[in-house]
Structures are given as C-alpha cells and as structure tokens.
Amino acid sequence: MTSMETSSLLKWRVKVLSEGLISVQIVKNTLSSIVKEMFWTTVRAAKSSIIYETYDFSPSLLDERGELIAIGTGVPNFIGIMPFMVKAVLEDAVKEDLGLSPGDIFVINDPYRAGTHLNDVGLVTPIFYNDEMIATAAIKGHINDVGGMNPGSWGPNATEIYQEGLVIPTTHLYREGRLNKEVLRIILHNTRIPDYVLGDIEALAAALRYSQRRISELCDKYGVSVVREAMRSKIDEGKMLARKNLGILPKGEFFAEEKIEKYEGMDEDIRITVKVKITDDKFIADFTDNPPQVKAPINTTYPGTYASVTIAFVAITDPHAPLCQGYLEPVNVIAPERSLFNAMPPAPVSCYWETMFYAVDLVWKALASYMPNRLTAGHFLSVVSETLGMIDPRDGKYKILCEPNPGGWGAAIDKDGESCLVSSADGETYTHPAEVLEKEYPIRVECMRLNIEEGTGHGKFRGGFGMRKDYRILADEAILVCSINRIKYPPWGVNGGTDGTCNHLVVIRDDKIIWDGGRAFNFKLRKDDTLSIRSGGGGGWGNPLERDPNLVLEDYKNGLISAEAAKKIYGVVIDAQKLKVNFKETIDLRRKMAER
C-alpha cells in the first residue's frame, strides 16, 4: 500500500470514527429530549389536575435490562424507583410466563416491588426494533383514587394495605397493542372516579406509545447499534461524573435522628435515625437502627427509601446532573426487612411520603453542618396534603381533590430560606392555582398567602415562610382526609438558628375553630365550612443577634415581622414613624442580650 493510500485510509477511518462519535452524542441528547416530550404528552392528555397541573408523575427511558437512561421532569422520588419497577415487570414477565411483545404495556402498583403507594400506578412497555428488544420505557403517576376505605385511597386509619385500595401485580394493560378490557374494567370498578382514572391512565399510556415511536425513528436514522451505544455511553458518563462529584464531599461517618408523631394506637412517638458513610467511591445510608414496620400507613418500602437517598445524593453533588443509572451507582442503602424503611406485606403504606421524606431529611440533617454551601437548615418537610371528596352541585359528579401544598424552607449559611416551595422530595411539582381549583372543584379559594402569623425560624438568616390557604366548601358535604407530619416537631435550625414552625390544618365553622390538627379521616365538612391549610416555616441559620439590621427592617416594611418581635428576637430597634433602624439603641440592646 502506497503512502498516499495509507493516508487516505487513515482519513477515512478518522472520518468514520468522528461521524460515529457525533451520531452517538446526538442520540444521547435525543434520548434526554424524548423523556421531556413524554412528559408534555402526558400533561396535554391527562384528565386530573394532579397530573396536568401539579405534575405528580414522571416518565423515563431505560435499557432492556431496566437500567435508567433518562428521566423527565416531575416527582424526584420516582428517580430511584423506576429501575425497581421495570425490573419487577421484566422478572414477572418471565417468571409468570406473561411474555414480552411489541405493543405490550404492563400496569403495576404493588408498592413493595414498584415503590411508593397504590395511588402511584406504573406503566411499563418493552421497546422493540425489528423484533429485537432494545429498551424499555416507564411512567409512574398519581391516580387520585384506586378504591379503599377513604376517598383518595389514603389516610391515617389504615392498619393493612388491603384497606388502602386495589393492589395490581404485573398485568397486561395492552397486549400487542390491543387494550386488555377485562383488566381495565377491574380497575375502573374499584374507583370512585372512573372517568378521571380512565383519562389519566390513558394519558400515561400515550406517553409510552410516543416513546416507542421515537426510539424506532432513532434506530431508523442512526441504526440500532448506535442507539445501544448511546445508552451505554450515558450510563458510563454518569458513573464518571458521579465519581468526580463524590470526590468533593466530606469523607467519614455522619449521624442524625428525628421523631415522627405517633399515630392512633401507638404508645409513643417514633424515633428514626440514619448513619451516613461517605468514602471515595460510595455514599452509604444505613437505616438499621429504626423501629419495625407499624400498623399505620407511614411505612415506606425499600424502593422508596432508596429513592430518598438518591434525592439527597443528587442534591448535594449536582442537582443539574443528567440522571441515569450510572450516576446513582455510588448509592448504597441498608434497611432491614420489615422495618419502617423497608416494609413488607401487609404493612400499610398509603402515607409513605411522610416517612420517605423524613429519610431525605435525615441524610440532609446529618450533612448540613458539614456542607453549609450545599444544604440549608430544616424545612417544613411534609406534603401537607389533603383529600376532599365531594359531589359537585354544578354537574352532579363525584370529585376528589388531592394536592401537595408548599411551605417554608430552611435558611442557608448566606441567605434567607425560600418561602412557599413544595417539599424536597416533591421537587418539580406545583401547587394548584386558585383559578384551576375553583373551576374543577366546588370550593372557593378565599385566601392564598404567606403564613406570616405563625412565623418561621430565626437566625442570622431566617427560614422561609409557610403558606396559608383557605377553602370555602360549596358542596353540600365534603369528606376530609389528611395525614401530615411536623405537627409537633418543627424544622431544625443550624448553628444557633431557631427551629421553624409546625404544619397543621384548621376547620372553621360559623367563625369558630372546630378542629385543629394534622390527621383526620372521614371528617365531614358542611357547606360554607372553611378548611384552612397552614404549612410551617423553615429553620433559621446562625445567631439571630448577628442578623443584618437592614434585613430585619426590610422584613418589617414587608409586614413579615412586628417591631416588637424585631426588638425581642433580633435586638433591632425600629423607628416605626421614620421606618429606620435606631442603630445606637440596637447596638446597646444587642450587647445586653448577648450578655444574658
């Protein structure tokens, strides 16, 4: 071969290699785009506001083994759960001889294998190209009612899972593209709101069909080998990025503990703990020292606990990292079976989020003092969710309102906490706008504002404020169900910052408070009653006497603190007439307060 021929061959090889690398990169980016497109497909098609307005769902792409490739916007606690759910379906397809064919869509909500609770219904589809299975797609979303003894299928009174609704093992919803009508009929006959459930399940299925089409288009254009290589490359890149980001974390062992308020039938509040160990290549969360599962719906399953730790891991390493199985590889979660953090049948789990979110918070609390540039003081934590089941007098239909509510986040080492954000594990979800609430449900929103009266945690930087939202009931009757935490133990402060404030709900009838608490089931509300939802404020960071007096003055001007409280808590003397700080009196007062 001449030198000219050798040179031409090298150029050709370089060209082929470059084109291959470019194609792989294009496909990788397209895979990330597809899950976003799946997300908006679901939003456009959904029937219930919990999906199209709150975004209580997440779509994902995985490889043929169930390893996560990409996940769309939505609920962060589904990040770590998707692989568990898909692997359960693939395992059952073989073990139970269900088969895997093009056009199949499986449905599952078994929380012990697919994570979370019965409301979170998952759909999984195998993706084929030329009769070869090359990937899977999955989506999980909150279905507002799947039966059970309470409207909305959750509540504080369950003692076993069978009271919480219909348990669906891996089952064909679509078989080779054809609807399994018998299964769908069973699901719709076990819900109070069949038209809404049908609309939402079909919206989830539509997203999976969209993913099938888009993956086939990629294979047509670039070839199946390039698509496979792109999936492998995404996982490999995730591993490298995770190892790099793990290197910046403090190494060692860290500990945190908290308490959850007891449920009916319990003798005492529940103490929960975590031991976090960070090495050069592992992020280990050990939940061994925790109580056994309880006969109350706050148990969480292992997939849920694992997902909690992945949320914390992603938050402290890189919240904007492209999420895939490779990035989660360092995470190792230890939780003994039949414990609060690894519940087994028949433990009730319908309010799992309260314990699951505590798992996030425990890891957060263990590391906050060691990672002040990454983590804040404690936040309101709970979903502060309520369910209202009622007949809408406008159309005679039974409707169920279920929603997460925002609250106050903790202060950081260099800034005040954020006000009225959803809790950490709810991530990209949103609260309902007043206009949607009044259009969809027989209620009037009479108040939606900062929960200023009940305050927040104080410090050099204060916590964010919770929310107050008042609903006037316009139906003849409504059934209230709620199960929230931090009703007794407030968000924790850091480095001398004070604790935040607690969450609670209030029922007002004839201008009188008739109930004030955090847990209720089958609580009958009358027409013109007011349900007032009041979430807590976040914890403070640092000594309140070190807060910039000008920041205290700004809070006073904005109606967030009284002049009396500014003086008592922060040692700041405000001239209410001139709207200025009296710095001389402030210095003197702070010196005296510091000496006490």
Keywords:
five-stranded antiparallel beta sheet; globular; 596 residues; 3 domains; alpha+beta; seven-stranded antiparallel beta sheet
SSE inventory with pairings:
Elements: H1 3-45, H2 49-52, E1 57-63, E2 68-71, H3 82-95, E3 105-108, H4 111-114, E4 120-129, E5 132-142, E6 171-175, E7 178-179, H5 181-188, H6 194-222, H7 224-246, E8 252-260, E9 270-278, E10 283-286, H8 302-317, E11 331-334, H9 352-368, E12 386-391, E13 398-403, H10 434-440, E14 443-450, E15 467-473, E16 477-483, E17 504-509, E18 512-517, E19 519-526, E20 530-534, H11 549-557, H12 563-570, E21 574-575, E22 580-581, H13 583-595
Parallel strand pairs: 10-11
Antiparallel strand pairs: 1-2, 1-5, 3-4, 3-6, 4-5, 6-7, 8-9, 9-10, 12-13, 12-16, 14-15, 15-20, 16-19, 17-18, 17-20, 21-22
Helix pairs in contact: 1-6, 1-7, 6-7, 8-9
Structure description:
The protein has 596 residues and is an alpha+beta fold. The protein has 3 domains: 18-233, no CATH class; 376-543, no CATH class; 548-595, no CATH class. It contains 13 helices and 22 strands. The relative contact order is 0.10. Mean pLDDT is 95; it is low at 9-17.
Offer a concise description of the structure.
By secondary structure, the protein is of the alpha+beta class.
- Percent of residues in helices comes to 25-40%
Mean pLDDT: 95
Low-confidence stretches: 9-17
Please count the helical segments. 13
